[in-house]
Amino acid sequence: MKLDFDRPSFAVPFKRQNLNCISKPYTPEQSQQVCASRWVKLLQLPNPYSFDEALLLCAVSKHEWLAWIPDHGEVVLHISEFTAK
Questions:
Q1: What is the pTM of this model?
Q2: Residues 29-49: pLDDT tens digits?
Q3: Are 21 and 31 in contact, with CB atoms under 8 Å apart?
Q4: What gap in Å lies between CA 28 and CA 65, rounded to an integer?
């Protein structure tokens, strides 16, 4: 058996993303930024079986974020519903 290690012609080159905003502390005033990939602590669980943390995906408005909660799914959170970890 011979393994083929050639790159397929449809491969997309890796593009490094700028994630400098992850290392900075989150404040509600920064909700206008489109920085994502930040874990936050939920103040109230959406259901009894979900995790108590959410991953911010992107800002929906000045005061709302689209987030992913393990064992629950995607949800729109108001900035008053979570705190920075």
A1: 0.58
A2: 554 455 567 899 999 999 888
A3: no
A4: 11
The token pair that represents 17 in the structure block: 């993303």
Helix (H) or strand (E) holding 56: strand 53-59
Sequence spans of domains, the chain: 31-84
Strand partners, 10: none
Question: Given this model, what pLDDT does residue 55 score?
Answer: 94
Would you state the torsion angle of the CA atoms of residues 67, 70, 74, 77, taken in this order, to the nearest 10 degrees?
Answer: -40
CB-neighbour burial class of residue 26 (10 A; exposed 0-12, middle 13-18, buried 19+): buried
Q: Is 33 in contact with 75 (CB distance < 8 Å)?
A: no
